Amino acid sequence: MKRLVFAIFAVAVVALPVCAQSVTTVADVPFGFVAGNAMMPAGQYKIDAAAGSSTVSLAGSGQSNHVLVSNPDDARSSSDKPELIFHRYGDQYFLSAIRTPFRSREFPMSSMEVEAQKTASAKRASEMIVLAMR
Predict the structure, then answer these.
(1) pTM, whole model, 2 decimals?
(2) φ, ψ for residue 44, nearest 5 deg
(3) What residues have CB less than 8 Å from 130, skipping those under 6 apart?
(4) pLDDT digits (tens, 9 = 90+) for 122-132
């Protein structure tokens, strides 16, 4: 009996990290946006962020995957509910972060976003947009 209990415990301990390795969510983005240096159209996206990796995969319907490299995981800025964070400058949207209950993946600013930010700073027209994921 002790062996059975130990075996179940061992399987649970080994399986727990495997379950926590990847966070996959879906988001409906109602506007086109820039992710890294790629233009992404409005639509539904499947987002896969593997734990222990700095890559995040965005898969839109009818499109090939786009892979982004994020800054290191930050557990301190995680969110209770999964969400996408965008920076908006005028009519341009830039994916800034993906937050889940476990981690926050922040993306470095692309050269396109830096330029948009400079233009917006002169006009004082920028904002942060938060979209819930499921």
Answers:
(1) 0.74
(2) -90, 135
(3) 83, 84, 85, 86
(4) 666 677 888 77
